[in-house]
């Protein structure tokens, strides 16, 4: 069974916390418990008996919370503690920072690695104390490392690819232009309604559009000498980005109509599994609905523009972060480092929400029965890690606004110039 040794670890941790109470070290033991734990002069020299009544609170979005609940119940039963998984439907990262600073946040939060820099800058997460990382995909450990420290326990590695319906499309398209021409033909000759489904929405989507953006010559930041994104060099309005913006405009509502603001995170996947489009740009999170609908699918690398560079997707790593202001940090560290790192748990998380595990043993366990893992790996082989620098948080909103405007037919230069300035202003205020 997993984690039964934790009772002794927790006991030792709680004794240390009790001894630190007078220094204001964030102890969770009540004054009365501290008093009863202190041995009297007459008491025999034995280890004190502590009743921690510990509760671990985990915040995750709806999908991850559902996957975590049975595992949390298992850990709670094995260790005699209470574990509560709370589903936070919207704005989890903002709510986590606010609640942490108010002392009302969780002990652990679950999210993608792009928030690490912002969380560290705000002082709301601690490094995790993982002695051995050799069993993990090196890319997942790299993605969770910031300023030389590991700040999260990775559990899945993911990227988007191009879903095709093999009943409608014979092979993976070689270029975006092929996607458009085949999609147009299907719209004219069949019941297919959309050329393709790449979510844009009214606010844009800097994550999903990235492969097309970079293939067209665009970027968000220049790079430092070490190859990391440089927050001092915003390139959203560079010559290459303006060229990429022109390509997006040509795909947009006043162009061929392949990109539309009416296609968003709510309807992009249903358009595919309802067979209203033959092409969907999405990740492994779409698989459940597609399989449930019984729609035929295959997964391809995202094709580039015919005169563009490789359409590299972002590589995202999902992980668990220990809150620096959590009430049960000893318990949170144990849950993170000794429970979440096991093959049993990483495989169980995959089965609940099929995204490629970060633990290599789990990948080997599930890949033989899941060909989609290899296909998404192939689609992401040239991908780049989601930037973890705090400045990336200033990109999503302004760039998304510019993207949506360009897709709707607005002037490319005006839109991207305004976005770049808003990003620079946001970074300057950080």
Describe this structure in words.
The strands form four sheets. Strands 1, 2, 3, 4, 7, 13, 14 and 15 form an eight-stranded mixed β-sheet that branches. A three-stranded antiparallel β-sheet has the order 11-8-12. With 430 residues, the protein is α+β, with helices and mostly antiparallel strands. 41% of the residues lie in helices and 15% in strands. The chain has helices at residues 6-19, 31-37, 62-79, 92-102, 116-121, 138-143, 176-189, 210-215, 239-251, 268-273, 287-293, 329-339, 343-352, 360-367, 371-379, 396-407, 412-429, and strands spanning 55-60, 82-87, 108-112, 125-126, 145-146, 149-150, 153-158, 161-164, 221-223, 229-234, 279-282, 298-300, 314-323, 356-357, 384-385. Helix 13 packs across helix 14 (360-367). The chain folds into two domains: 6-41 and 51-158 and 317-376, D-Maltodextrin-Binding Protein, domain 2; 161-313 and 388-429, D-Maltodextrin-Binding Protein, domain 2 (3-Layer(aba) Sandwich).
Secondary-structure blueprint:
Layout: H1 6-19, H2 31-37, E1 55-60, H3 62-79, E2 82-87, H4 92-102, E3 108-112, H5 116-121, E4 125-126, H6 138-143, E5 145-146, E6 149-150, E7 153-158, E8 161-164, H7 176-189, H8 210-215, E9 221-223, E10 229-234, H9 239-251, H10 268-273, E11 279-282, H11 287-293, E12 298-300, E13 314-323, H12 329-339, H13 343-352, E14 356-357, H14 360-367, H15 371-379, E15 384-385, H16 396-407, H17 412-429
Parallel strand pairs: 1-2, 1-3, 13-15
Antiparallel strand pairs: 3-13, 4-13, 5-6, 7-13, 7-14, 8-11, 8-12, 9-10
Helix pairs in contact: 3-13, 13-14, 16-17
